[in-house]
Design brief:
The complex is a heterodimer of chains A (about 325) and B (about 200). Chain A is α+β, with helices and mostly antiparallel strands and about 325 residues long. Chain A has 3 domains: about 60 residues, no CATH class; about 160 residues, Jelly Rolls (Sandwich); about 70 residues, Phage tail protein beta-alpha-beta fold (3-Layer(bab) Sandwich), CATH 3.55.50.30. Chain A is built from 8 helices and 17 strands. In chain A, helix 1 packs across helix 3 and helix 2 crosses helix 3. The longest helix of chain A has 17 residues. Chain B has about 200 residues and is mainly alpha-helical. In chain B, helix 3 crosses helix 4, helix 4 packs across helix 5 and helix 8 packs antiparallel against helix 11. Classes of the chains: A alpha+beta (about 325), B mainly alpha (about 200).
């Protein structure tokens, strides 16, 4: 086989594994077998794989006005550019409202790195982000859901007679004609309103005032308090970029960026040096491509990347 | 900073040469230290080998030999090791083909010069990387560039690209594969070396 033939085959492997979104254990076994055939295969594969990683940085050329190039889902998001983002976090608190559910509650879950869209009969849609568990009330026209953990984007067909209710972390979000994002983290629930109106309250604790959210509002609920801040449409769009499989960082610390990546990938990034953790970056990365991120850290800050024991350590 | 990093690495792995080399470490080394030599390696081979159409195969064989050797023991001086390997490969080829290539013998000095050339400054690489990528992208054939841009920059799926351009997904895949090959040649220097020559 000539070098050109081997390169063609290697390019196919790299694109298939990195880019097609379809990669099964059988594919991996077939690739391993091909690599084991000869050192020429290994070096050709490494070379093109490294080139693929380098070209990941081309994502930075993505136009800042996303509506020009985005697919239909994105245009919808902008059209409702006012919808809501809710972020719920799932520990003990999450479960008091989650216990008494009907036996035929429908259960939806995504694995680490996966996404899923649930379409309801009335046209409402719920998009689940990585590592998320959501339950929906039974019946043909459910108006209640439980975000047990993770993050979900709700685009709800409003029905003023039957508001849609989402429970998470012992809090309740009631839609008043709404698109919103909810993210449940341990001991922290975040709700961001993109369109319409929603109310966030605490049915278990009548002493806490409900918060009424309008577009751009981001509510963060911890065990004892709810705080609301307002964000621009652009910032909210960035927070929704996971729906396109992307992570957008704007002067984000490496520590925060790493923990975002860790939500999407089994291989975790570890930063122990506080000086490294506080460096800030700007950029857009595919959420499943940790290497693009570590490459950037290496190239921009001259940091060292160590792969060991299934972890990726970033060091000075 | 670069110096400090390097000395740290030495102190962490004082006996790295005698430790079995893991595949991940080997790939890391290959990508970080060997691939950046490709432009210089290609030039060296072109200087010393008459049949220019053999060059891609020769580069590949040098890489395969370097990889085989490094699996057993990581070389201390990557650059010198790569060029020595290339030199030995040419000698082997000359013997095998029973052709006397005067250049292959007379230009041994090239080896020493190439081996001494300092590696480019890392920070310069980082600063120029995006610009280099953009230039490499611009050099792709128009259709291939269009497909690669839609996939890698705009984030469209293969199916969406096929639909927009009225081509099959198999053709989309072909453009992505060809695009990756051409980008790799451009980034690692073979195409650049060829362009300089022609």
């Amino acid at each position: 086989m000539s070098a050109a033939d081997i390169q063609t085959r290697a390019a196919d492997w790299v694109n298939q594994r990195r880019d097609s979104g379809e990669w099964t254990p059988d594919d991996q076994a077939a690739l391993d077998a091909w690599l084991a055939e000869s050192p020429e295969h290994v070096v050709a594969y490494w070379r093109l794989d490294a080139a693929w990683e380098r070209t990941q940085r081309l994502v930075a050329l993505r136009p800042s006005k996303p509506e020009r190039t985005r697919g239909p889902i994105w245009r919808n998001a902008l059209r409702f550019a006012a919808a809501a983002i809710v972020i719920a976090a799932g520990t003990s608190a999450a479960f008091y409202f989650t216990k008494p559910t009907a036996p035929d509650t429908r259960h939806f879950a995504t694995d680490v790195g996966a996404r899923k869209t649930i379409k309801l009969a009335d046209g409402s849609e719920i998009e689940l982000n990585t590592n998320t568990v959501l339950r929906i009330a039974p019946g043909p026209n459910p108006r209640m859901a439980w975000l047990d953990k993770g993050e979900a984007y709700f685009r709800i067909q409003h029905d003023s007679a039957h508001p849609f209710v989402v429970m998470a972390q012992g809090r309740r979000v009631v839609d008043l004609g709404t698109e919103f994002l909810m993210r449940a983290e341990p001991k922290r629930l975040e709700v961001a309103l993109v369109a319409g109106r929603a109310q966030l309250d605490s049915p278990n604790d009548p002493t806490q005032e409900p918060a009424v959210l309008t577009p751009g509002d981001v509510a963060i609920a911890t065990a004892n308090a709810i705080s609301v801040t307002s964000k621009s449409t652009k910032v909210l769009s960035d927070e929704l970029s996971w729906r396109q499989g992307l992570l957008v960082f704007k002067y984000t610390t490496l520590e925060d960026a790493a923990s975002e990546f860790n939500r999407y990938n089994r291989k975790k990034i570890v930063i122990t040096d506080p000086k490294v953790a506080q460096l800030t970056i700007v950029g857009t990365f595919p959420s499943n491509d940790v290497n693009a991120f570590t490459d950037a850290a290496q190239a921009i800050f001259g940091l060292r990347i160590e792969n060991r024991n299934g972890e990726i350590a970033i060091k000075r | 900073m670069t110096d400090k990093v390097d000395s740290n690495r030495d102190s962490y792995h004082p006996h790295s040469a005698s430790v079995a080399v893991t595949s991940a470490a080997l790939r890391d080394w290959f990508v970080r230290e060997v691939l950046p030599l490709e432009a210089a390696l290609t030039q060296f081979l072109r200087h010393n080998w008459r049949n220019k159409s053999d060059i891609p195969d020769l580069v590949q064989e040098v890489y395969a030999r370097v990889y085989d050797a490094a699996r057993k023991e990581m070389p201390e001086q990557t650059r010198a090791f790569v060029f020595t390997t290339a030199h030995n490969l040419l000698i082997d080829r000359v013997r095998r083909e029973k052709i006397i290539q005067i250049e292959a013998v007379s230009e041994l000095d090239t080896l020493a010069i190439a081996a001494d050339e300092p590696a480019p400054d890392r920070s310069v690489i980082a600063r120029d990387e995006l610009r280099r990528l953009q230039i490499a992208l611009d050099r792709l054939p128009p259709r291939t560039r269009e497909v690669v841009t839609m996939r890698r920059i705009d984030g469209l799926s293969r199916a969406e690209i096929a639909q927009r351009l009225s081509i099959t997904e198999v053709t989309v895949k072909w453009h992505l594969n060809e695009g990756l090959r051409a980008l790799a040649d451009d980034l690692y220097g073979e195409a650049a070396a060829l362009r300089n020559k022609s």
